[in-house]
Each structure stands twice: as structure tokens, then as C-alpha cells.
Amino acid sequence: MKNLIIIGDGGHSNVVQSIVENSEYQVIEIWDDKYHNTFSENGILYGPINRCSHHLGNKKIYFFIAFGDNLAREKMANILNIEEERYAIIHSPSAIISSKAKISAGTLIMAGAIVQPGCQIGRQVIINTGSIVEHDCKIDNYVHIAPGVTLTGHCCINKGSLIGANSVLIPKVHIGENVIIGAGSTITKNVSANQTVYGHV
Q1: Is-catalytic flag, 135?
Q2: Which one of 12, 55, 91, 135 is the catalytic residue?
Q3: Active site located where (predicted)?
């Protein structure tokens, strides 16, 4: 088993912890700033985030940033400033991931999600429950694909964007950086950076 430290202990982290139970990783510590002191429970050490700094030099320990917010994940990754290979890639046993897809460090793929051949998934990405990422899609770093989303073939999602639950993107749509797509949307054309859109676009 590989030793794992999880950063964050909210609702999103609870899902991460549940998936890790059936993985190659063993959680040894969980750090969150809602804790002011360290304590141990069920063999796991808990405490504020700044207490994990003494582990950063130990290359036998892996890390996972369990924040649902894209910007928060990016900020924490910049603070930790560790090698990419030190981040775990975590996926549910029920996720279907093509051997011809590339999944980068720190990414989470949840239950029932499908990632098809030719997909390139960046760092610290969330592919949430039941989402479908069809062939040859490119998803940049710090993106969140919410539950039930369908990305049809050759879609491109740029850094920091959120695709809301149950949205559908038709083939070859490009989404710019830091875009928010509202839940249940159908996106038929490109969306430029820093926009919030919803409905049939």
C-alpha cells in the first residue's frame, strides 16, 4: 500500500476517502484548517494544513488535494509546490477508463464515470459521478466536470472551468479558461474565457 495524505476534509473529501478505501493507497493523515490541533482517530492523524509541511520532503508519501473548488485546488497545489508524481491519481472501481486515455496527477474520477480513448485529462481535475468524456476530448488542469455531464467527441475544456451537472456539449466545442456552464445546459458553440453561461447556447 502507498501512504497518502489528503488535504481537505469536507464533503468532497468524504467521497475521496470512500474511493480510496478500495485503492492502492492507505490514508495516513488528513489535513484541514477547520482543525486547530492534531488528533488521531481510527489510525489516521488529523490537523491543520500547515502541519503537513514536514512530509513534503518524504518522497514515499503521496498527496491528494480534496477540494471541490477549482481555484482552491490550484492555490493549494501552488503552496505545496511538490513534484507532479507525488500526487495520487484516484478513480472509483466502477469508473471505466480507456487504457488509451491519459490521466494526469492529482485527478479524481468518480463512480460510474467513463473516459474514452484518446482523452487527455490534466492535473487536479474532477470527473464527477456518472460523467461521460467521449473520445479525443482534452480537459486542462483544475477543471471540474460535474455529475452526469456528457462531453461528446473532441471537446476541449480549458483551465479552471466548471461544467455544471447534467450538461451536454456537442462535438468539437471549445470552452475557454475559468468558464462556468450552468447545470442542465446544452452547449452547441464555443464559449470564450471568463464567462458564465447556461441553457441552450
Answers
A1: yes
A2: 135
A3: 135 (proton acceptor)
